[in-house]
Amino acid sequence: MHRYEIAISFAGEDRNVASAIADRLTAEGVRVFYDEYEQADLWGKDLYEYLAEVYSQHARYCIMLLSENYARKLWTNHERQNAQARAFRERAEYILPVKLDDTKIPGIRETVGYIDLRATTIDDLIPMILLKLGRKSGDAGGTGISASVPEIKIPIPKIKKTFTQLEKDRFTKEGFGFISAYFKNGIERIRTLGGGLDADLLAIGELKFVAKLYRNGDVASQCKIWMGGAFSQNSICYSESFHDIHSDNSYNDWLTIEDDGYRLFFKSSGMWFRSSEDAEKVLDGQQAAEYFWRRFTGPLER
């Protein structure tokens, strides 16, 4: 059983909406992760790691309140990336988008079903959430005690499929989006560490970026990561030593897309001397980002 039935991800400017949803769901006996309910538990924790666990592991569903405010906040992007990693990994419904305006959010496809709070009231939204959870209003008697709703597990045979080029293209683009967002957040965090460390990132269009780590003002590590390359359009390449940011003819590592008939995944080239175990793994977008990040930051450990 998940610790929470619903985790709410929102920008501080939209707290009034998040609070109304959280209070109504709690009154129905739903276990909700809402930061104001967790202040004592959050006190003293490493929030970067703890929130990553909440949004990637501990909730049955994640409600995202999508807005202009949501798109530009560092913490909401961190929550979104971890929630997307969970959805990406399980290939199942997990993120429940609720639109507050028309802002496009990276990784949230326009084809994903959503609720628009400009056309739907919170009074109408709550029964839909309860229905998603397999219960109806009043199941918990409004006591705040979670109703016991058994989940019936019915085994369904897996059927292999052939993935289309469109699916592969979207998988590659979403994977690159995870990597790009992961590096942006990682570099922002390094900038807060002090101790002579600094970092910078330069986006080159939508499908390429350059990242640099500095120690006492000197370059300690640098890399260029881009989508596409010599292998196929469905690859993501990594270069450590480059002289021309626009020339993509040399690389030190790469990820390619493969499938087992049930899902798409990334495989590393195995060219990194620390990556023998990674070469045997199937990687989702989050794991692919971690793989490149470990390679990029490795010189700091020497």
UniProtKB/TrEMBL annotation:
Lineage top rank: taxon: Bacteria
Protein name per the record: TIR domain-containing protein
Ranges of residues in domain TIR: 3-141
InterPro entries listed in its UniProt record: TIR_dom, Toll_tir_struct_dom_sf
Record organism: Geotalea uraniireducens
